[in-house]
Amino acid sequence: MAFTSYITDDSRVEQIFFHRPDIYRPFAQANDVVMRGPSDLSVKERELIGAFSSALGGCHYCAGIHAETARLFGIEPGLLEHLVDDFETAPLGDKQRALLAFIRKLVLTPHRMIRADADAVYAAGWSEDALHDAIAVSALFAFMNRLVMGHGISANETQFQQRGRRHFETGYIVPD
Q: Most exposed residue of 13, 122, 164, 169, measured as fewest CB within 10 angstroms of its CB?
């Protein structure tokens, strides 16, 4: 249910961006760099981090779209749900689990982050750049989740598939 006059019940995030291009054009470019630019993390890993952060943050819209995008990049169907429902038994390798445990804590209890959390990520084999990029993805999605939920934007399964495919095929640059 839309909360503003420039958003309708079938709106996408782009409508917010179109409403205030002075704010969101540079932001859309930054989104594309964070999600598709050079990184120690694969695009598939970044999409999973985005979907996971959104699911933990309660944003059904972003979680649904980015779960679909992650699936198109090769994440196993159902992995996101398993991570959210029972993180400890989700089918992950130790390296991935360490990074996603950091993200989980960052989303759920950011005020409790300590050096040992980062050290666990490094001990699992991740670089400082990989950790930075994971943090950047999670931060990006925290912003987007609030933007979406604050405007009352929603979507259904069909829209998740369509919008996930669009991100898979074209990335994050919003057309004029």
A: 169
